Amino acid sequence: MPEKHLSSQFDSELNTVSSRVMELGGLVESQIQTAIQALYQFNADLAQQVIETERRVNGMEVEIDRELSSIIARRQPTARDLRLLIAISKSTANLERVGDEAEKIARMVLSIIKSGMPRSLPFSELRLEADLASGLLRKALDAFARLDTEAAVAILKEDDLIDKEFDGFVRILITYMMEDPRMISPSLDLLFLAKAIERVGDHAKNIAELIIYIVKGADVRHSSIQEIESVLK
């Protein structure tokens, strides 16, 4: 079989599996948005919908990994193509974990509804953090589809905003707990929920780092923004 034909087959397989990753990304992005909506509306039906979708997310992760293993075994890719396949696998794992966080949020919403947690707690203060995290995931998926390293760096910088929102929310909850000890238990539940949202931003950041790994072959985990920008020059 001519090499050109082998290459075109490989490209076709890559495009197929990449499309599946984008499909998975869209699904977990929808999960997060629905979970947050369930929180804002105290809507048990929406929360249940997120939980039921998680099985589909898990199944897609397994299917994508199986296809990646098959491609590696049959094509024996080298250099940049192998980096791409590894990065796709790691991105898939990060997306599945975003689905886990969405399910966690949904289950906590059901718990909040069942327990009758005081509506006076600062649920609305989570909105900006949630919007930032959801938006960051969307940007990460778009950047991954285009292998856009500049967008990847912008995502890494924006993740700091989510961390700051989380820290600010923690301080608000501490105030509630100090003013009324009866708020300690429900405030801790809300803290775990905020942490789940913050973790969505972390996974978007991981995907951004993988984009740089694909394009430049550099592992920039644990690197400063200045070091990363130096790699891209």
SSE topology sketch:
Layout (H helix, E strand, L loop, with lengths): L2 H39 L2 H32 L3 H37 L11 H20 L2 H31 L4 H33 L8 H8 L1
Helix pairs in contact: 1-2, 1-3, 1-4, 2-3, 3-6, 4-5, 4-6, 5-6, 5-7
Fold and architecture overview:
This protein has 233 residues and is mostly helical. The protein has a single domain, classed as Phosphate transport system protein phou homolog 2, domain 2 (Methane Monooxygenase Hydroxylase, Chain G, domain 1, Up-down Bundle), CATH 1.20.58.220. Helices cover 86% and strands 0% of the residues. The protein is built from 7 helices and no strands. The chain has helices spanning 3-41, 44-75, 79-115, 127-146, 149-179, 184-216, 225-232. Helix 3 packs antiparallel against helix 6, helix 4 runs parallel beside helix 6 and helix 5 (149-179) runs antiparallel to helix 7 (225-232). The longest helix has 39 residues, at 3-41. It is globular and about 65 Å long. The two termini are 40 Å apart.
